[in-house]
Write a structure and sequence with these properties.
Length: 318
């Protein structure tokens, strides 16, 4: 039998014994979908017919259970079969491929409800995973008992950065949908929090910083770094993007700063799984370093066997 929301396709076998009189045809009986009385739906006068599509587009209730039985007659009379109960519904639609969430150490497979349940409530999902291209599929959910769980935490050891292949299907009372297309799911998480950027040099309007690469990319290559600063005071958040930074260089000069203001900087890393937490802050003043001290001299009168007293010239304020 083949069922959809608008059609019941049935097949039958001819009686083993025609009673000594030629079979003249078949009759198809259908109830009202509410366990009521049977009425003759079709009369087929072709005695060799063994299949028929019952049109259910008019007056039928999708998801209702209809009883169907066959009658076969000859010149003496009619004999009816036992009835079969059928749900007016198709199987669920093919689901979308599964997705996943991962932190680089754990991986959870996520399934989604199909667009259509076929007209009958879904009673189970079956999830299969292939952990290696050379291995067979492993049924992780819905193998024996019905399962309505839509997520699965992978318990096998999957190395960081590697992929698994997953697919699933849905079932209602009329049967299983087709398997979804495969989802290729990676054991990967966002990069770890990078170290704070470090100071290289500065002027009254520029600050040059070194971007520190992350020590652990959590399974996927870091594709970009971000640099942020504040407004040069402690009343603004450190969330102003340094748009002149290309995301790849390991040093960068921030320009257009106000002389004498104290700026805070953070960096952030990104890979295929997302962005890291932002680093701790580096605080730098937009100013040049003072001149080095000169004329360092030992003060002999103030020195002794355990200490040396020195003096130097004052660095002028600039």
């Amino acid at each position: 039998m083949d069922l959809t929301q608008t059609k019941i396709s049935i097949q039958w076998k001819a009686p083993l014994n025609d009673g000594g009189c030629q079979i003249l045809g078949y009759r198809i009986y259908l109830d009202d979908g509410a366990n009521g009385l049977f009425t003759m739906k079709y009369e087929l006068i072709e005695p060799f017919t063994t299949a028929y599509d019952i049109d259910m587009t008019s007056g039928a209730t999708i998801g209702a259970t209809y009883r169907v039985k066959m009658g076969v007659w000859n010149r003496v009379g009619e004999v009816q079969s036992d009835s079969v109960a059928l749900i007016l519904a198709s199987v669920p639609s093919t689901p979308n491929p599964p997705t996943s969430v991962s932190d680089g150490t754990n991986l959870e497979v996520l399934m989604s409800i199909p667009v259509s349940n076929g007209g009958s409530p879904i009673v189970s999902y079956q999830l299969q995973i292939r952990y290696n291209p050379t291995e067979d599929w492993v049924t992780e959910l819905g193998a024996v008992k019905d399962n309505l769980q839509l997520n699965f935490k992978v318990k096998r050891n999957v190395s960081q950065g590697s992929y698994i292949e997953a697919r699933f299907k849905a079932k209602n009372k009329n049967g299983w949908s087709s398997f979804s297309n495969s989802g290729f799911l990676q054991m990967v998480g966002p990069p770890e929090m990078p170290e704070r950027p470090t100071y290289i040099s500065s002027t009254g309007t520029t600050i040059t910083l070194r971007i520190i690469p992350v020590a652990d990319n959590n399974g996927a290559h870091v594709t970009k770094y971000y640099l942020f600063r504040d407004g040069g005071d402690y009343s603004t958040d450190v969330n102003i993007p340094v748009t002149s930074y290309d995301g790849q260089a390991l040093t960068h000069t921030v320009t257009g700063l106000t002389p004498g203001l104290k700026y805070r900087f953070v960096e952030q890393a990104e890979n295929a799984a997302g962005k890291s937490a932002v680093s701790y802050e580096t605080i730098v003043v937009a100013a040049e370093l003072p001149s080095k001290a000169t004329l360092i001299e030992k003060v002999t009168a103030l020195s002794n066997k355990t200490s040396i007293h020195v003096k130097w010239s004052r660095v002028p304020n600039t």
